[in-house]
Amino acid sequence: MGVLAMIVGAMCGCQQASQPAERSEATDSGLIIECEEPELVAEAVLRVYRADGSRYLTEQQHRICVGASHLVITGDEPGGPCAWWLHNGQFAAVRTAPGAESLCTAATAQAILSLMAVSGGFVATPTGTGDALERIDGQSYEAIDAALVPALAVPEGFTVTLLRPVAQARVDRVRVVDARKRSILAHAFNFERVAQMDRILPTRIEIRLSGPDPVRLDLEYVDFSPMGRRTR
Known about the structure:
The structure is a single chain. The protein is built from one helix and 15 strands. The chain is mainly beta. It is globular.
C-alpha cells in the first residue's frame, strides 16, 4: 500500500479542522495516511494572478489518495516550507507562504481533489441526473450534485457541483461553495495519458475565485508518478 506522509508543525494562517482519525496514525513527526490504491504524486507549477495585475509563481508537490479522499500540498518557499492537507472532508494548514494564501483553503483543496478524482476516472459519476443544465464559457454543462457520488467526501457546510459537458463522458469542471457562500469554479484541461497508471489526467487546472478581490489560480502539472516513480 502507498503511504501519504507530511510533517505537521505549528498551525497558522488558514482554516483548521480536527485531525482525521480514519485509517491514520498521528506521530511526533507527522500524519500518515494509508492508501489502498496507487498514490498519485504530481509536481506542479502554480501561478497566482491577482486583481491588481500582480502575479505570484511557485512550485508545489500534490500527493493524492483518491480512495481516502486525501490531498497533501507541499512547497518550498524562500520563507520556508509550506504545507496543507485535506482528508475526508477535514482541512488543516501547517505553514503558508506569502502569496500562496489563496490556494491554502479547504475550498480550493476540495476543488483540486474532486477534479482529479472525477476527471481522471478514479471515481465514477452518475448518468441520467436530470435536466439541470448550465452555460459556462459558451458551453452547456450538466450539473451533478457531488452528494450523488458517495466516494467524494465534502466538508460540512460545503456544496460541490460536478459539471460535465453535454453529450460528453468526462467531468471537466467543479464548483465549490463554502459555508460562507463564497464560490470557486475549477476547470481541468490539457489531458494527457499517464502510461504507468493507465489514466488520462489533466495537466492544467484553472481556478477562479469569487469575491470583491477576485483571484485566478493556474496549476500546471509538469510530472505525474505513482508511488513517486516518474511516468512522463
